[in-house]
Write a structure and sequence with these properties.
This protein is an alpha/beta fold. It has 11 helices and 11 strands. A hairpin with a 6-residue loop joins β1 and β2.
């Protein structure tokens, strides 16, 4: 072959691996015809692949003709190298799997309260995948306000946090999770609960005592609360629900969290076309190189979990 002195100096690509697999199958099938069944492709496609491989390597690998199929001396050497290559790849795969199965240690997660009722359960699904891949890992979940979660991730108390995006905090990396929608509600004992919809004006609603989160809010949400008469604060959404049940307050709740009370006629949504907002939830980790294999494994699970 005119290119027999060519050196194979290019990086190995996926195409090369495919061609080498065809070559391996041809050798082990002792010819093109038998390899058709093994590879489930036509003889012409196998012949084309072999020619491509010989061109890539600059070597004649086999003889084929009336006398049958046989390997050239370079072909025999390449075949041995191919076996070593695929053995190494299999060993690498086994070593990676061994790392996953032998992962030990802890994963400390801070989660904003009451995300369990989200329809898109990416957190739940990703935790299950981590536990299945690394059964010896201890998972520690702490329910905390968003600002405390940010502090915990920054100071190393937490490996990862799930929070609504309030601001870009220096020192943190962000990965989008999902969007959460919130509406304004009152409880069944509140004066607004029985007022007909056509009489439920925004002006009337804004006259009533409202409960607000004690933690920081994004500016666009804070402006919504600034319109209201804030007379109570809470650390979490469960606190909002408690105060709504008193019949003395109105307050914003995630629609996924309030829906069961709304369907049971315990809560009423108040003009959602006017009083509602959405917030983006993020997974946050400390910026910089992440040497924690447990965290890296969980991040892979989170990124590969479909909503």
């Amino acid at each position: 072959m005119a290119t027999s002195k060519m050196h194979f100096t290019r990086q190995i690509q996926d195409m090369d691996l495919r061609l080498l697999r065809v070559f391996k199958a041809v050798v082990e099938s002792k010819g093109f015809t038998a390899a058709e069944i093994e590879l489930n492709v036509s003889r012409s496609a196998i012949s084309s692949s072999m020619l491509d491989l010989e061109t890539r390597l600059g070597l004649k690998l086999c003889e084929r003709g009336r006398s049958g199929f046989s390997l050239t001396d370079p072909g025999k050497q390449i075949y041995q190298h191919v076996l070593q290559l695929f053995d190494s790849m299999e060993m690498f795969r086994s070593q990676v799997n061994a790392i996953h199965s032998s992962l030990t240690g802890e994963l400390n997660i801070g989660i904003t309260d009451n995300l369990i009722t989200m329809q898109h359960m990416r957190i739940v699904h990703s935790l299950r995948r981590l536990k299945e891949a690394a059964p010896d890992v201890t998972i520690n979940v702490t329910m905390m306000p968003p600002n405390e979660i940010e502090k915990g991730v920054l100071n190393g108390q937490l490996h990862i946090g799930m929070v609504p995006i309030i601001r870009d905090c220096p020192g943190l990396d962000y990965q989008p999770l999902y969007e959460e929608h919130a509406s304004l509600y009152c409880g069944e004992h509140h004066p607004l609960f029985t007022i007909p919809e056509e009489q439920l004006t925004p002006e009337l609603i804004l006259e009533h005592d409202t409960v607000a989160p004690a933690h920081a809010l994004p500016d666009y949400i804070q402006k919504i609360y600034d319109q209201h008469k804030i007379t109570a604060t809470v650390s979490d959404r469960e606190g909002v629900a408690f105060l709504l049940m008193t019949g003395c307050f109105i307050g914003f709740l995630p629609t996924h969290y309030a829906i069961n009370w709304e369907q049971a006629s315990s809560f009423r949504s108040l003009r959602p076309e006017t009083f509602s907002y959405s917030v983006q939830y993020m997974a946050i980790t400390k910026s910089g190189k992440k040497d924690n294999l447990v965290l890296n494994s969980y991040m892979q699970s989170l990124q590969s979990t479909n909503e």
